[in-house]
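Before the break, one more example. Copy the sequence into your notebook; we will annotate it together after we see the structure.
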Amino acid sequence: MPESPEQSLSARDREILRGIIGVYLLSGEPVSSRRMAKDEQVGLSAASLRNIMADLEELGYLLQPHTSAGRVPTARGYHLFIDSLMTTEGPGPEEREVIDQRLSETDDPESLASATSGLLSELSQQVGIVVTTDFARVVLKSVEFVPLSGQKILCVAVAAGGFVDHKVVETEHVLTREELIRVSNYLTEHFGGLSLQEMRDRLVVMLHDARSEVNELLSQAADLAQKGLNSFGGNGLVIEGTESLLSHPELADLDRVRTLFDTFADKARVVEILSQCVRGDGVRVYIGQESDLTSPLDFSLITRTYGAEGQAAGSIGVFGPSRMPYSRLVPLVEYLGDRLSTALCSTLST
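Here is what the structure looks like once it is written out:
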């Protein structure tokens, strides 16, 4: 079996590649062999380094933008760096304290999503993104109807993964608090554990089968479920920090700025792309042409899922120029995903 490109790299090659990417992440300028030769720890001449860098380019880890320029990392180079060359720097005590404090200040999943997006942007100086799962497809935990005034009722639905949705509906008749509690308990008892779509479908069947024999409680439950739950569904998207990217040299010209804002203009498209990106557990990194979200600007996306009670509630991510501090941001996304999942569990248990 032929060697993979990674297997063909010697320890010295890997160390040189790690050094080149480290320098590029700090400077943003193509890295030359002369620049690397100045590092006493490298211990190689510029001529030797040129040969190694040429080999790394041939293997697809580096790219030379111009004939006379130094080299920059490719997506393959970044992935090798992220997977096995970089030393991660998890959030320090002060950052962890900020995260835990901010997430403890809210008591509902929607506010947690907003707080997390803000934290991602603030601590990374990139764009922070939080996506909540399609509510119509996640498993329902409970339904509650709360009387407001007159014939207006607040419908609150909680998914097993932690996402909460709500809306105000108006009924034909005034219903007492006791009647609404009975309906809430009925729907939770008979439909908890089903997806919202399955709940809607089963109610339709039950009403059709029962016909004239529909009892009052089922009739009220079906009516309120139809009014209160039919419009639920669709993913939510919280984006923070697009303006923070304007100071990055990668967005020095106006065309790239327009592309950035155009990228997030169609939120439904962003949700669709992110939903396709996140598969399974753990942090995933998409660079440049690897996703439709990162390719227009040749940016990167660091993302992972979050959830509670065994159900995925959505995904979080950091989006920005490919020249980002992966050693700090990969563990940051991992930590925030864990803390958001824990906060959701706490919210659902109260």
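Strands lie at 62-63, 72-73, 127-132, 140-147, 152-159, 164-170, 236-240, 284-287, 299-308, 311-321. Residues 326-349 form the longest helix (24 residues). Try to locate both features in your own notes.
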